[in-house]
Amino acid sequence: MDWERILLVFTDILLPLAAGYFLKTHNLLTLKACNWLIRFNVVVMVTVMTLMSFWVLPLSAKLFWLPLIGVLITAVPGFIGARWFASRFDNELDRGACVISAMLSNIGTVGGLCAFILYGEEGFAYVQLVAAPQNILMVAAAFPMAKYYYEKHQAAAKQAKLKLSFREMFITWNQVGILGMAAGILLQASGVERPAVLGTLFHNLVHVLAWISLLPVGYLIDFYRARFYYRKVTDMIWLRFVIVPALFYLLFKVLFTDQVLLGSLLVMAAAPAAINSVITAQLYKLNVDITIAVFILTTVVFVLVVFPLFFFYIHLGGQL
């Protein structure tokens, strides 16, 4: 087992979260600087990383299902969250935060690491193919959804009619990552090889991206305020770890027979709520505390209960 990859849980996930929380509690980082990091991550880092990853993404027809599954893993729980879970909240900012938390899951970080622990590099590679559209979906789907709920809240507060233009929903600097995806696909389709030096740069930037993404989340975490929402978001445990995995298991069994692929996909289907839900809520002024409560609650349940049970089932010879 590659212990360096296991250490990434601490160096690239826990440490930046702890650092952000430390900087806030010791007044070493301002909210303005935190928001600047969020925008820099969304506008610059996501665009650069998306371009480089899509540049070498295999365009083989037989792998078509995996990115499509990545889209469905975002869209299906998002629809369920909006249709049945968000209604328990009275405020549009709260409802928006609930829907965003349902949409975005932690596939690339937690899902990738867990698939690697279970199946090695093969499992990790499958995760990357499914996770490839996630950043694009964040800017192309989650951001417009967050904008929609924010504008609904503003309209209700002003007792005015909701007005949204296509440009306000889909054409902002927050969506510039789509251009990175398009450029990467164009380079790949044109047969332009990515220089080896960019491959090395990409692997180094992954760690930079983790810190720039997670440090603001650590800064925004407020355990005191989030505690008021834990009871209200417990249904997210059912959504993340029962409803979504059960629905997708039926689809996976129809499409695939390989046990490694099936196991990797189930880990992704049961991934906890995403860090990006917190970023999205902060960016569009939704209720950040709800996204933090869902993020903390689902991550703890996944790490302490869901993944250990799955791990022992697989290693005891269980068949999927």
Radius of gyration, in angstroms, nearest whole number: 19 Å
What is the name of the CATH class? Mainly Alpha
Instruction: Report the strand count.
Output: 0
Distance between the termini: 23 Å
The whole-number mean of residue pLDDT values reads 83
Main pleated-sheet profile:
none
Q: Percent range for helical residues? A: over 70%
The amount of beta strand, in percent, is under 5%
Which shape, going by the Cα principal axes?
Answer: globular
List the secondary-structure elements in sequence, H or E: HHHHHHHHHHHHHHH
Helical run tally: 15
Explain this structure to me?
The chain is mainly alpha-helical and 320 residues long. The protein has a single domain (3-315), classed as Na+/H+ antiporter like fold, CATH 1.20.1530. Helix content is 77%, strand content 0%. The mean pLDDT is 83.
Note the main attributes of this structure.
77% helix; 320 residues; mainly alpha; Na+/H+ antiporter like fold
